[in-house]
Target: Phosphoesterase
Amino acid sequence: MTENDSERSQLSRRQLVKYAGVGATLAAASPLVGAGAAWAQEDDRHDHQGNENSSRNRVWRAGDHHIHSEYSGEFDTSVNPPVFSKGADAVYPIVTNAIMAKNFGLTWAMCTDHGGPTHSKVNLEQAYPDLLLSRRLVPEVLQFWGMEFDAPAMDHHTLMIPRHDDEAKMLYDLESKFAKNDPFPADPSWNTEAKMIEFLKYAKDLRHKPLVIAHHAARSAPGFYQWGQDTPREFRNNQDAAPDVYVGFEGAPGHQAGPLNGGDRGGYGNYPTHGGYDQMTARVGGLWDALLGEGRRWWITATSDSHVHWTRGGSDFWPGEYSKTYVHARQDYADIMDGLRNGRIWVTTGDLVTSLDITASGQGRDAAVGETVTLSRRNRTDVEIEIRFRPLNGKNHNGDRPEVRRVDLIVGQITGPVANRDADTNPTTKVVARFGPRDWRKQGNEYVIKHTLRNVETDMYARVRGTSTDEAEPLADGQESPWDDLWFYSNPVFVRIR
Model:
């Protein structure tokens, strides 16, 4: 039996009719949802097409790896085993999230529901069958299986499972063995740094390697450069344990619509975000740059963390309505994960730009975002940086026509591992050039910026950010509308000097 046959065998005709009705109701209720959705198309038509080692057919594909459904519920622990109820913390069915993701331009997505006591069984027995239904009903969106992992000794993380026949069993295995909130009664011995390392070492040895990405990493931080549940030391230790599994954190956390209902962006009630981005990302020369300065392949993403839409009293946008993570990949589960694992990623808010490419070149060689170009040491080693971006042609989902006011080129040296595992600065990282509209030229539908880094003598990385504001650096967020404070960030391109 094939993988698709296995899924079809679990889908009753009654269930398909029921969920097709949900989709039709949403489509009728929202003018944003395209008409004529091909609900009956073959499931997983995009799964594992072509040669996974080929870059052919790769384009920038927008997605979201942190979305909640009605399976972020609650447990009655007064009985044994605990009884689960849907819809306590997030309210939308999995298929609703998929429909809205498609509506707002996403081609891949992932529901990441909260865990809890014996939640591994809820995922296996209740949520996974609904995911299979949603895949059938919204085939245009690749829908990954996974969860918001209750990381031992840390805040939540994405746990993304590769698409394969035993994906449901794989998540059950990992959650039931390592998620700190899964045991009932609770077991404090599961909530330790050692348990987190055990989980990552176990995960890295699996045939189908998952991805783990930290959520809202500084949400619990009491102040600027004061870390909470997630610390620089833990990030380093975790990535050292499983470098091809533990790959980064959310640069722009979800809950960005908080100010529209009087709340905080990202739900960051202690120390705020900056321009909607976590302080670990937004501060030039800060923690992200400290990790990159060691030569780590450490990536940032942007997510919705959607629970309840702001128009219904929540603090969230729909998946893709405000934040997008773009991955350079084919429309293929394996290649999307490969792009996330290897940093072929850039992120934006408010659809400020719809395409972003960074290239570092010299001596006839070049590299793009997530890649490394190796140059030989000469008396004069110049590195050419080319930035290409495409602004939104039309209005975003707030009805605005956002404009890029400035693009910054940020460069830092790679000096190798640090002795202090809690180091959170890279003093070599600087904004080396700022570009305004007079500095870029139009080429087709794109704008192009070129800049030469002269006499490069050490290993380095370059990354790019841009904004719709006049702020030289993203300011700490207050109650301004998120639509008035838009930023995009690339992940780095690396330069090695030999």
